Amino acid sequence: MADDEDETYNNTNRAFLQAFLARSTLTYDEAKPILAAIFTAHEKREILPEDVTEADFHSYISAANNAISLYDFEIRSTYHQTTRARAYALVNSTSDPITQLATAHSADEIGYLKRVLDAMFETYNTPRREVMAITSMDAVRLNRPPAVDGRETQNGSATQGSAGQGITGKEAEKMLSTLVDEGWFERSRKGYYSLSPRALMELRGWLMETYNDLGDDDEEEDRPRVLKIKLCYACKEIITIGQRCPKRSCQCRLHDICTQNFFRVQKSKKCPLCQTDWIGDDFVGERAAEATNNSQRRSGGPSVARTSPSAVTPQGSDDDDGVDEEDGG
């Protein structure tokens, strides 16, 4: 769309990067009106959003990446887990992402964020129910740090966010809203908070190091390794929304849209790891909590609040302790 002279980095590139910096993430559809406005101002003639091509967009992404690489930043992309729209995000390629957040938030707010992450990936992420999301009500209840009880994350470190005085309930609600606005969290229609594509990209290494227990070489070989953070078998990206193998001890997970393409080329709809029939009604994400609640209602179990995963599976319940024994894991 731009003239030949635009092959060099110029004011159109600077305007695009500035617009990118003002947003947490950007998709091609979101970028089209931005680039159209930039082209209109530069070429002094009206350029419509539909005139902006993917080649234009990728050209400006590439130029921006080259410009910011000297400052240890880069633009990365990933597919949204439900819409499959490719999202682009500006991330720091060297700094600890939690440290980056600390530059914009207080110590008590960071402590609160860590408690919410612990809830997502520890409390509401069990062998039976991999919810990996938290309701608004449960998130606000984490505004104060718990009494020290010796809890640890999977890598053996102390439970996060236990220090400090905490924040008020209103401050917790504001912090959740801010994390959505900053592109770290997403809020579903049913009120569940989960990590956004940007967060999954930028926090990938930190999440795996914090919540996955890979064991040490000098530990006993038969000690089970706990993988709280799992990857989609097809696209190899972190999965927090999708489907899981019906066999609980199996580690296979697939995004919903990945299942469509994956099983289309398979001779049978079976788990690629354990060959169990892939039914498609074993879920990862907030649907895992929904399925559990529906099952309990059908079986005449206790009434459970539909939007509260904490009412379904408390951390360390006996219900989860017997899962591996049941499956032989």
Could you characterize what this model shows?
The chain has about 325 residues and is of the alpha+beta class. The chain has helices at about 10-20, 30-45, 55-70, 95-100, 105-125, 135-140, 170-180, 195-200, 205-210, 255-265, 285-300, 320, 325; strands at about 25, 75-80, 85-90, 135, 185, 190-195, 210-215, 225, 240-245, 255, 285. It has a 3-stranded antiparallel beta sheet. Strands 4-6-5 form a 3-stranded antiparallel beta sheet. Strands 10-9-11 form a 3-stranded antiparallel beta sheet. Helix 1 runs antiparallel to helix 2 (about 30-45) and helix 1 (about 10-20) crosses helix 3. The longest helix has 17 residues, at about 105-125. It is globular, with a radius of gyration of 22 Å. The N and C termini lie far apart (about 55 Å). The model is unreliable at about 305 and about 310-329 (pLDDT under 50).
Q: In angstroms, what is the radius of gyration?
A: 22 Å
Give the uncertain stretches in residue-range form. Answer: 303-307, 311-329
Structural class: alpha+beta
The whole-number mean of residue pLDDT values reads 83
Helical stretch tally = 13
The major β-sheet equals: 3 strands, antiparallel
Q: Tell me, what's the shape?
A: globular
Please give the share of residues in helix: 25-40%
Query: What share of the residues does DSSP label as strand, in percent?
Result: 5-15%
In N-to-C order, the SSE pattern is: HEHHEEHHEHHEEHHEEEEHEHHH
Q: Which sequence of strands runs across the widest sheet?
A: 1-3-2
